[in-house]
Design goal:
54% helix; 322 residues; Gep5; mitochondrion; mainly alpha; 15 helices; Genetic interactor of prohibitin 5, mitochondrial
Length: 322
């Protein structure tokens, strides 16, 4: 029996998210249904949300809340799609590349190396050795006139890769990837073959494409809202967590206590239901590891830079409890 829109919305309305996020997810699904060109693709959309709800609520894998927020709020910029589909060959004239011998080779060794490289026909470096303190990447020349699409994609991908590598300790995952392609020499201090150099280049582009797929910025206003949810005091009624989630979990617990076998009940360590405070802690953990694009087009880390942002100090909370 095919999965229906009603089943998907029922599952979505049980998610442990704030009401604004909940309404946004439902509206997004409705919009995709209206805009769908092929109705046969809709059951796949429904199943994906039902599967995510089952993983989060039914299986109680609460860390999956990050997947829900990712899917709701993260919209890759257009250049992400273009970059992931472009061929490495089209990027090669613009991508930063360096031959490592230019860092430490002597003048005779450099001349011999670049003569051999010129014969290979894959040289992307100047014959001049850079001076002290100069970046080895300033010596690379670019091909083509004007700023092509591939040059723009290169600049954007390199910029994102450097940002992620520099701030990996503050982001959701650690990826220390240098965007520059470095070509070593062979055992005779001569260039690698064209095939081996191309393999190195393609491998680097593949790594950067994986990074681009993994790290997607949030819109600033979306990040601001998530920070509001994460840091709003519990007594505030302005930001409410979906009440349907708590009602569903209470029914779920009652059914489990009645229907689970004694062996399964004994293995169940606790019958815990997340509170609003627990859910907001998940939000805090999520937003502290995000980034966004500012009005100047630069990447910026989340302004909520620690887990206890806008929370009372521990000593103050202890005094209140006493």
């Amino acid at each position: 029996m095919p999965t229906t829109f009603k089943q998907a919305v029922t599952a979505i309305r049980r998610l442990p998210v704030d009401t604004v996020t909940l309404n946004r997810i439902v509206a997004s699904v409705k919009s995709q249904v209206k805009q769908a060109r092929n109705p046969q693709d809709l059951p796949r959309l429904y199943r994906s949300w039902i599967s995510l709800q089952r993983q989060l609520v039914e299986d109680e894998r609460w860390s999956s809340l990050s997947d829900v927020l990712d899917r709701c709020y993260k919209r890759p910029p257009q250049w992400y799609h273009q970059f992931r589909s472009v061929s490495p060959v089209q990027l090669k004239p613009f991508w930063p590349q360096v031959h490592l011998i230019d860092e430490f080779g002597t003048e005779p060794a450099l001349r011999k190396y670049h003569e051999a490289q010129a014969l290979i026909g894959a040289s992307n470096t100047s014959w001049l050795r850079q001076g002290p303190g100069e970046s080895p990447f300033t010596m690379l020349r670019k091909y083509g006139s004007g700023v092509s699409l591939y040059e723009q994609l290169t600049d954007k991908a390199v910029k994102l890769t450097r940002f992620v590598s520099h701030n990996q300790s503050r982001l959701a995952a650690k990826r220390n990837i240098k965007p520059e392609v470095s070509y070593p020499t062979d055992q005779y201090a001569l260039p690698l073959s064209a095939k081996r150099q191309n393999n190195i280049f393609v491998k680097k582009i593949r790594e950067v494409k994986q990074l681009v797929t993994q790290f997607v910025p949030l819109a600033k206003y979306d990040l601001d809202w998530l920070i509001t949810v994460a840091s709003t005091p519990l007594e505030s009624s302005e930001v409410a967590i979906n009440p349907n989630f708590f009602r569903y979990m209470e029914r779920k617990r009652e059914i489990e206590k009645e229907q689970l076998s004694p062996k399964l009940r004994a293995k169940r360590t606790k019958w815990w239901i997340p509170t609003e405070h627990n859910i907001r802690k998940h939000y805090r953990s999520y937003v502290t590891r995000q980034f966004f694009i500012d009005d100047s087009g630069n990447y910026q880390l989340s302004p909520m830079d620690n887990f206890f942002h806008n929370q009372k100090p521990l000593t103050e909370a202890l005094h209140e409890d006493q």
